[in-house]
C-alpha cells in the first residue's frame, strides 16, 4: 500500500502524519532536513495545505535547494488538491 502523508512546515518543525496509520512524526531543529527529505522521497501521495504558498518553498530552503527548483516540487503537493479526491 502506498503512503498517504499530510505535512506542515513551521518555524522549527516539519510535522508529518501518515493518514493510513494515524502515525505522527515531528522533525524539529537539526532533524528538519530529515522530514523534508522524507516528503520528497515519498512514493505515495502527499498533501500540503499551504504547498505552493509556504510549505514547498520552506522545504526547498531547509534542503538548500534553489528557489528556481520549487516548481519541480509542486507535483508533490498538487497530487491531491482536496480531501474529496481521496
Write the layout of secondary structure elements.
Blueprint: E1 4-9, E2 13-18, E3 23-28, H1 32-41, E4 45-48, H2 51-63, H3 70-77
Parallel strand pairs: 1-4
Antiparallel strand pairs: 1-2, 2-3
Features:
86 residues; alpha+beta; 3 helices; 4 strands; disordered C terminus
Write a brief caption for the model.
This protein is of the alpha+beta class and 86 residues long. The protein has helices at residues 32-41, 51-63, 70-77, and strands spanning 4-9, 13-18, 23-28, 45-48.
How many structural units, i.e. domains? 1
Termini separation (Å)? Answer: 14 Å
* Average pLDDT: 80
| H/E series | EEEHEHH
Describe this protein's structure.
It is a single chain. By secondary structure, the protein is of the alpha+beta class. The chain has one domain (4-81). Helices cover 36% and strands 26% of the residues. It contains three helices and four strands. The chain has a four-stranded mixed sheet with strand order 3-2-1-4. Helix 1 packs across helix 2.
Amino acid at each position: 500500500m502506498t503512503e498517504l502523508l499530510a505535512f506542515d512546515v513551521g518555524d522549527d518543525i516539519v510535522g508529518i502524519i501518515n493518514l493510513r496509520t494515524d502515525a505522527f512524526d515531528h522533525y524539529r531543529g537539526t532533524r528538519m532536513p530529515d522530514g523534508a527529505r522524507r516528503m520528497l522521497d515519498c512514493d505515495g501521495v502527499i498533501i500540503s495545505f499551504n504547498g505552493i504558498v509556504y510549505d514547498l518553498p520552506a522545504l526547498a530552503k531547509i534542503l538548500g535547494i534553489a528557489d528556481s527548483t520549487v516548481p519541480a516540487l509542486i507535483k508533490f503537493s498538487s497530487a491531491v488538491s482536496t480531501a474529496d479526491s481521496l
